[in-house]
Amino acid sequence: MDLGITGKRALILASSRGLGKGIAVALAREGAHVLLCGRSAETLQANCDAINADGFGRADWVQADLGEDNFVETIVKGVADKLGGVDILVNNSGGPTPGSTEDMSGEKLATYFNSMVLRIITLTNRLLPGMKQQGWGRILTVASSGVIEPISGLALSNTLRPALAGWSKTLATEVAQHGITSNMLLPGSIMTDRLKSLDAAAAERSGKSVDDVRAASEKAIPARRYGTVEEFAATAAFLCSAPASYVTGSLVRCDGGAARSV
Ligand SMILES: NC(=O)c1ccc[n+]([C@@H]2O[C@H](COP(=O)([O-])OP(=O)(O)OC[C@H]3O[C@@H](n4cnc5c(N)ncnc54)[C@H](OP(=O)(O)O)[C@@H]3O)[C@@H](O)[C@H]2O)c1
What we know:
By secondary structure, the protein is α/β, with parallel strands linked by helices.
C-alpha cells in the first residue's frame, strides 16, 4: 500500500530512542521529511545521519526538553527553520516514574502534567492553524494501554494519560471538517529501553531475575511475546498516512491482545 506521505513534513516528539525513533524511521522510509527531537544532540544527530544515509526520506533534529518551559517555543522555531510547517504531528514523551498513588506528590504530579500533557496540548494548538489552512493533517498521540486498563505500579501514567485521551477525542471532533485526524496509539509491551527498565525495577521489587519477570509478562500476553518497535511504528505510520483519512477519534491498541476489554 502506498501511504501517500512522500514529501510530507513530520514532527515526532521524544524521538531519539524507542517508539518515537521507530516512528521517525518508518515515516522517513515512506518518503517523509522528519524532524526528530529529544534532549541528546549526539543521539539525534546519529539518528538523522542513519536516516539520511538510508536514502528514502530526509531527517533533521532539534534539541528540546519537554521538562522545560521553553519547549514549545524551541520546537516552533525548529519547525519554522527546518520543516517550514507540519503535516504530521506525533505527540510522544518520556514515561513517568513508576509508583503508587501515595507516591504522587503535588510537585511530581505538576511536573509530569506539564511535560506529558500541558506542553503537548499547547504545541498542538500552535501547529493546528497551519494544518487547517492546508486542509490536511495527522495528529497521533502515543499513550499507553493503561488508558483502557490501568497498570498497577504506574499511577502517574494511569492518571495523566487519560487526560490526553479525552483531549485527543475532543480534538478529533473539532478538526475532522478540516481534513485533520486525531488518534491515539496505545502500546502494550514493546521492547524499548523503557520496558527494559520497568522489567528491571519489577525484578528488584520481587527478588526475581529479569528473565523470569519477562517470561511471566510474555506468558500473560495472548501473542506470548513483547512487540517490536518496527511493529509499533508500522501501525503508527498507517495512522499518519493518506489512506487513513477516515480513521479519527480512535484509540488504537498495539499490544499483542494484552488488553482484555472489548
Ligand atoms: N515501550 C512500551 O512498551 C510502552 C508501553 C506503554 C507506554 N509507553 C510510553 O510510550 C512513551 C515512549 O516509550 P519508549 O518505550 O519509547 O521510551 P524510551 O525508550 O524510554 O524512550 C523515551 C524517549 O523519550 C525521550 N524523552 C524522555 N524525556 C524527555 C524530555 N524531557 N524531553 C524530550 N524528550 C524526552 C527520550 O529521549 P532523550 O532521553 O534522549 O531525551 C527518548 O527518545 C513513553 O511515554 C512510555 O511510557 C511505552
